[in-house]
Design brief:
By secondary structure, the chain is an alpha/beta fold. The chain has 12 helices and 5 strands. The longest helix is centred in the N-terminal third of the chain and has 28 residues.
Length: 251
């Protein structure tokens, strides 16, 4: 009865990890031979692990990463210019803690989105907040926010995000309003958060993509100054995988 009361109290205190661990200890007679301090340490460790897992789940859910990618699964055999040492540095996420930016460019199918999501996943695993958005979706959200009065709230959410991933950068020309909105987003985050840009468009063409010399200068100065850059090369990974599958297909 006493144990049941303790379990109920742990649940009321939202110490779910400790509650589960205590129930496991009751079901495993071997743990009864441990000293009180050892059993207590196991309970505390389980609670810490439970909270870390819950936090990771919340961060990943909020990030809305496009693909479930992990740094450990990077393919370095495909000749696209990726270096293990460079990726190890980026995987540390120190650049995010320093509010630096990262630009990933390269031809279609070379894995820009996958790498961006892998780095986003890594950031979540280190307790950093992440948000993935395709640039067209960002502009659409900003347009709606202007109309329904939620613009300030949306901008505040973007500002508080440790890593903002903007995918499909440069797919189409931007309007005057979109340029202004983009400047506001980049200006708010400059020096206070990291932005990862994934684009088929080489950085030397970004000025033309934005379209207004004055605003383009302001946006790119904040985005590119001191930013890390990954310029991927080579054939499409999707094409290579398709060809490999066809070569072993007995039919």
């Amino acid at each position: 009865m006493l144990t049941h009361n303790t379990l109920d109290t742990l649940r009321q205190l939202k110490l779910t990890g400790m509650c589960d661990a205590l129930e496991q200890q009751r079901a495993q007679p071997d743990t009864h031979d441990l000293a009180f301090e050892e059993r207590l340490a196991l309970l505390v460790d389980r609670e810490v692990l439970h909270r870390e897992n819950r936090r990771l789940e919340r961060l990943l859910k909020a990030a809305r990463l496009r693909v479930p990618a992990c740094i450990e699964d990077i393919d370095y055999h495909h000749p696209r210019g990726l270096e293990r040492s460079r990726m190890a540095g980026l995987a540390s996420c120190d650049w995010i803690r320093q509010s630096l930016n990262l630009c990933i460019t390269g031809p279609t199918g070379c894995g820009k989105t996958w790498l961006a999501c892998a780095l986003g996943n890594q950031a979540c695993r280190q307790g950093l907040s992440v948000r993935y958005l395709r640039v067209p979706r960002l502009f659409e959200q900003l347009r709606i926010a202007h109309g329904d009065g939620s613009y300030a709230r949306l901008m505040n959410q973007l500002l508080k995000t440790d890593l903002l991933i903007l995918d499909d950068w440069g797919m189409q020309k931007v309007t005057a309003q979109q340029r202004q909105d983009l400047l506001e987003v980049i200006e708010d985050r400059h020096g206070r958060g990291s932005t990862l840009i994934a684009s088929q468009l080489p950085t030397e063409h970004w000025h033309d993509y934005i379209g207004s010399a004055t605003l383009a200068d302001a946006i790119l100065d904040r985005l590119l100054h001191g930013a890390h850059r990954l310029n991927l090369k080579g054939e499409s990974l999707r094409k290579a995988k398709t060809q490999k599958t066809e070569s072993v297909d007995p039919s």
